[in-house]
Q: What sequence folds into this?
């Protein structure tokens, strides 16, 4: 089957039945792999590329186009499959091509706003929110309330003295790999030992506040967000230039990894096992629900910029 035929079929889903959709998608993936032998599965520049990344993208598409899924799920899989990162952009945060474009744009904004700032006034802020076991029902409302809460805190305590740019992210915790201490700590956030993966909404942001040490700023926030380890405020890394700090932070805000997040007891966040197919489908549906018509800007947080 020619690449032109693939294009025609995928752009006209009524021309084929659900029973052939998975086979078509897998054939398309294989054709791409062999047609572009010297090209990686997505651009290398600006993102971490490993064989695992290649596998994760393939597994996501396979899960989305599988027989028995709804039309919207399969169409998302086809859009990811068709996206080549240049002329035909799908715009999905789950697409490594498009996410790289989005990270580039967000990185440019971060450097524009803070590239000439005094690094002593810049902090890396993380605030955790409660766990959710019904993400498609709860998290959109959680996100909007969370956004308002942080903005009102900044306005009430600092007014125009503070500036911030960041993004909301959703981690999925593995119900199998959680250690007993982690489960005990997460109980305050709504952890349930029910074998289901909980979703954790949280905020990452670069904050500029003249004259306030990180400890004092964090203590103010902890009066509002009172759970254990709910607020983390850190200065920029001293062993890296300002621009490198800002670039790394900007790209970290929009990583959209479909891997289970390690528990929050770890000193450094990391991502472990790949989502199972059910979690992949749920996570993809949630990300696109939150994205809506606004695109990746639906996840952005900004204050006084």
A:
């Amino acid at each position: 089957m020619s690449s032109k035929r693939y294009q025609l079929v995928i752009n006209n889903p009524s021309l084929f039945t659900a029973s052939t959709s998975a086979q078509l998608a897998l054939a398309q993936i294989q054709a791409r792999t062999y047609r572009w032998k010297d090209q990686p599965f997505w651009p290398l520049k600006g993102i971490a590329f490993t064989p695992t990344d290649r596998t994760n993208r393939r597994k996501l598409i396979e899960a989305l186009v599988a027989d028995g899924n709804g039309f919207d799920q399969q169409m998302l899989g086809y859009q990811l499959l068709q996206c080549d990162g240049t002329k035909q952009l799908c715009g999905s945060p789950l697409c490594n091509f498009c996410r790289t474009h989005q990270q580039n744009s967000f990185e440019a904004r971060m450097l524009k706003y803070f590239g000439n700032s005094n690094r002593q006034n810049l902090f890396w802020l993380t605030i955790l929110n409660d766990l959710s076991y019904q993400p498609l029902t709860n998290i959109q409302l959680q996100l909007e309330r969370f956004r308002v809460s942080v903005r009102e805190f900044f306005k009430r305590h600092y007014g125009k003295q503070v500036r911030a740019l960041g993004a909301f992210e959703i981690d999925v915790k593995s119900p199998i790999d959680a250690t007993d201490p982690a489960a005990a700590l997460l109980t305050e956030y709504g952890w349930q030992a029910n074998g289901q993966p909980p979703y954790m909404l949280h905020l990452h942001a670069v904050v500029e506040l003249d004259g306030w040490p990180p400890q004092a700023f964090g203590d103010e926030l902890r009066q509002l967000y009172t759970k254990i380890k709910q607020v983390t405020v850190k200065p920029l890394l001293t062993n890296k230039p300002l621009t490198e700090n800002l670039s790394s932070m900007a790209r970290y805000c929009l990583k959209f990894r479909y891997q289970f997040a390690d528990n929050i007891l770890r000193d450094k966040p990391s991502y472990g096992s790949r989502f199972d197919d059910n979690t992949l489908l749920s996570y993809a549906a949630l990300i696109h629900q939150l994205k809506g018509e606004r695109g990746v800007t639906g996840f952005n947080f900004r204050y006084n910029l």
